[in-house]
Amino acid sequence: MAVKKNPAQRVEQLREQIRFHNYRYYVLDDPQIPDAEYDRLWRELQSLEEAHPELISADSPTQRIGAEPLNAFGDVRHEVPMLSLDNAFDDGELSEFDRRVRERLELDEVEYTAEPKLDGLAVSLLYEHGILLRGATRGDGSTGEDITQNVRTIHSVPLRLIGDGYPARLEVRGEVIISHAGFQALNERAQQQGQKLFANPRNAAAGSLRQLDPRVTARRPLEMYCYGVGLAAGGKLPQRHSEILQRLRGWGLRVYSGIECVSALQACIDYYRKLEQQRESLPFDIDGVVFKVDRLDLQQQLGFVARAPRWAIARKFPAQEELTRVIGIDVQVGRTGAITPVARLEPVFVGGVTVTNATLHNEDEVRRKDVHIGDTVIVRRAGDVIPEVVSVMADRRPENARAFVMPTRCPVCDSDIEKVEGEVVARCTGGLYCEAQRKEAIRHFASRRAMDIEGLGEKLVEQLVEHKLIDDVAGLYDLDVESLAGLERMGEKSARNLIAALEKSKQTTLDRFLYSLGIREVGDATARSLARDFGDLGPLIDATEERLESIPDIGPVVAKHIVHFFQQPHNIEVIEKLRNARVSWPVTEKAAHQPLQGHTYVLTGSLSVMTRDEARHRLQQLGAKVSGSVSSKTTAVIAGEKPGSKLAKAESLGVAVLSEQDLLQLLEQ
Ligand code: 9MJ
Predict the structure, then answer these.
(1) Which ligand 1 atom minimizes the distance to the CA of 256?
(2) 228 alpha carbon to ligand 1 midpoint, in Å?
(3) Does 77 map to a domain?
(4) Residue 189 belongs to what domain range?
(5) Positive or negative CA dihedral for 339, 394, 204, 116?
(6) 396 and 479: one domain?
(7) 174 alpha carbon to ligand 1 midpoint, in Å?
(8) Does ligand 1 have an atom closer than 6 angstroms to the CB of 117?
(9) CA-CA distance, 534 to 23, in Å (whole number)?
(10) In the beta sheet, which residues pair with residue 171?
């Protein structure tokens, strides 16, 4: 029989258990127990500490947010300076670095560790006998600020190291960041509370660490990844950087799992390319890759110059944010008449391309960001997303800067612009009378996920409409080689290719056809639901709002748009013309392709390729049920990043667990 522990022993035991589970959750991303079980341990510790306040110690997991607000941060002198990194902006500069290293060391080949360069704030953590004593910012490298109270609130920072063998005094360095998911949640909360939004995760992390009140910091989703050691005294560390990182992980500190040891330049370049590819799907922002000479004896031999070590380099990605000037603000008219203000910019090179326009989304955004013509602004370009104006450099506003005035009439067709109560978007009321809306409708019709007409790009659509060769999408199928061949940049061969592509597009599917019509709020996923449910166009044209709303994922607003669309005689006329041109699709048996019928899935954690909502939707389209709780009847649990207690429940019930990769395969079927 277990001996009943006295309170002091039980408190220590609970702390050890909680530390271990924190480590599983925050460091390894692999929780071992359900949330409810963790909460139980936590509450037991809390009530024991309440009953026996003399047992409370600063390294207890309950004591993360203890201290009162400060008046100012104190200074911390770094015993070992916190160096910065030299940069390489292209492969040539990286190659130069490698050459210099090899020459100095008189070696033919050097091994490097390759790490993502996290875009956050460099922080130092000092542990004495395994207990976190102090956290500090980098500052100028020799003196930083004492932010102990704030780093203590970060769950991936252990208040006490686990395991053993750590030096008596150990100063660990790393980057404090906010992940994309954390950033999104933070801004959603700020918006709900009517507070100012953060411009990017880095600013949010910096602002959060600089709070004098640790209770504010504690509400911010900060995380820390460690990448090195400053001071180590009273104990031994391995003689390779990569092995030190392994050790840190063993002591409960979070280290990014994708760090690799690479030999020679080509492998460095390969790693850089790989990370460049992965950049968009990583859970946090990175601005490059850091290469460090792996052997510490070689690092020592190389030493450092000024403020940067000779043994490391940051190969930076092309910048994603740059400063430029707004030379005008125009509005663009979209397919559904939506009016989007667009900043015309002095050309600027951002993230590898020259940017001359950036979206301002809508009038409210222009006001919120307070963008004037003449302002110097920060422009951001992330991946393939349309560049956007992030913020204005208010102190650089020239005297003659002008505010943006939202037009009241469409700049293209002169129809009224109207803004429906409760909607953020203003719209041109011209409909297909508006040339801009017509062009956009045709472009959408031809796009890849719609009718997929190869070779029919933006420029060509503009010419076709402007030369009055067509006035709606059905007109495309009346085009012939002669009428096309006279257009700019259109030889006979391209004309023939386009006619062939048009011909090919006539064999389509119902969902593509529905999507291509450009009904408001009917994206490709909704189009698939409709196609699956109705099987053919006729019944859909006759459907009532009520009937449409009975379909999962179709709400009252979408239903209204669909009914309204088919009530317009003009739209029915175009559809008839398309059918007369022999556009056709196989008529499916209603709800034919439902391979997952009878299966139930549960989603937990965050997915990287799609949102949970999308995943649910797509599973439902294949006939699956998606449930919020795990039971023995569950077919499988699909676990993303940071899965919740559902994963543990699945494991305890012996229910299958699928990764995001498995999910993608399932959906591919
Ligand atoms: C970042 N920011 O991720 C270093 N860093 O090493 C990594 N920064 C660094 N290493 C020495 N991974 C100085 C800075």
Answers:
(1) 12
(2) 8
(3) no
(4) 87-316
(5) positive
(6) no
(7) 7
(8) yes
(9) 51
(10) 126
Burial of 489 (0-12, 13-18, 19+ CB in 10 A): exposed
Residue 263 shares a structural domain with residue 332: no
Residue 78 covered by a domain: no
Say what the pLDDT of residue 592 is. 52
CATH number where 31 lies: 1.10.287.610
pLDDT digits (tens, 9 = 90+) for 174-190: 999 999 999 989 988 88
290 alpha carbon – ligand 1 mean position (Å): 6
Report the distance separating Cα 359 and Cα 56, nearest Å. 54
For residues 451 and 565, membership in a common domain is answered with yes
User: What is the position in ligand 1's atom list of the atom closest to the CA of 117?
Assistant: 3
577 is catalytic: no
Catalytic residue among 4, 5, 117, 316: 117
Give the pLDDT confidence score for residue 28 in this predicted structure: 84
Q: Mark whether 356 and 307 lie in a shared domain.
A: no
Residue 192: the pLDDT is 79
C-alpha separations of 470 from 465, 473, 480, 499 in Å: 6, 8, 12, 14
445 and 584 housed in the same domain: yes
On whether residue 578 sits in a domain, the answer given is: yes
- What pTM did the predictor assign? 0.60
Among the atoms of ligand 1, which is closest to the Cα of residue 118? 3
Distance 292 CA to ligand 1 centre (A): 9
> Could you say which of 590, 617, 634 is where a domain stops?
590
Bridge-partner residues for 134, per DSSP?
126
Q: What is the number of H-type helices and E-type strands within the chain?
A: 24, 26
227 lines ligand 1 (CB under 6 A): yes
Does one domain contain both 375 and 245? no
Please indicate, yes or no, if residue 422 is contained in any of the structural domains. no
User: Given the CA of residue 120, which atom of ligand 1 is nearest to it?
Assistant: 2
pLDDT in tens, 367-421: 999 999 999 999 988 655 689 898 999 999 999 999 999 999 999 999 999 998 8
Looking at the predicted structure, is the pLDDT value of residue 221 above 90? Answer: yes
The residue to mutate among 83, 87, 115, having the most atoms of ligand 1 within 8 angstroms of its beta carbon, is: 115
